[in-house]
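User: Working on a comparison across species. This one is tryptophan--tRNA ligase from Apiosordaria backusii. Can you predict its structure so I can line it up against the others?
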Amino acid sequence: MRLTVKLGRNAPRLAHNLSPKSNTRQFSSTLIQPHSSSPTPESKSEPSPKIIFSGIQPTGVPHLGNYLGALKQWKDMQDAAHPSDKLFFSIVDLHALTIPGNADKLRRNRREMLTSLLAIGLDPERSAIFYQSSVSQHAELQWILSCTASTGYLSPLKHGLFSYPILQAADILLHQSTHVPVGSDQKQHLEFARECVTNFHSSWSIPSSSSRPPIFRYPQTISLDSSSSRIMSLSDPTKKMSKSDPVEKSKIFISDDEGVIRAKIKSALTDSVSKFVGEYDSVNRPGVANLLEILAGFSGGGERKTGRELAEELKGESLLGLKTLTADAVVKGLAEVREKFRQFGEDTEQNKARMREIEDIGTRRARESAERTMERVREAIGLA
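Assistant: Here's the predicted structure for tryptophan--tRNA ligase from Apiosordaria backusii:
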């Protein structure tokens, strides 16, 4: 899960994907080490299966920053996963309730996000894709964890925002996650989830033994590509690309058609320092650096190149040429995604039935996973 606590006027947009603004505390890790996913030098057995969990808020159609910063990497994880690994990707609509709004808009955003996850290539037969609110155990575990969680990490805001990190911890721990995708600046939130594990086991005197392992695992991090999570606005490259930006040409959505993509990149703000790409310089030439990072996000064929490496290759290229190369790469890279988005979003009875079936598959798998954990939790605390 890409973890987020945004403790300001607004709740997090991309759940588990934004850095905290304030009132956060870094926990030192003095916890039991998680089970290793790799065999010891003496062992030749197969690696232990991974359980990967991540979530995203239902904010409608994702933009390029969302896609390169998280969603494309989710697809890569799915494709690279061992057959025994389990993957859970949740549309965390309970987190979205911290900002009360229009019910019809929330319904539309939920459906658009589900359509987007399918469009980027997540396979409902391989990964459990589900709405958080459809699996009631998430909220049940959140309350149980809140009874033993330290308030030092939390903030005295509205209760929904105050307890937001605990629901995030419940999201992770409920499915016995062994690995959670996070950005380099978000690892402290996973530390809080680990502290919830320690507090719960300690408060309820739950022993650990080889014959009866503890209720929860201590999840490890999967570090996401940090450069991809810093895709900036096309109209103001000193700010991150954002759906809330009123300037339409500042962002590219995964559903944009070829003409729109090319027009937005052509109008992208660069600078007057030079007519050529030159050295990579995100401080003095943020617009050029942003285009290089976008181009890097779609670089394929072997090892992915960085924006800095592309700058070396394209030093003598004109800025117009860079925009053309970037537009070509984005158009090609999003072609299949855009077509799948159109197909899954068709307003036909047949497609609606298919989407309901996909929702049911993901919900059933997530509920089964959640209930296995909650049976042990209820027994351990006296509710069963």
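For your comparison, note: The longest strand covers residues 51-56.

User: Helpful, thanks.
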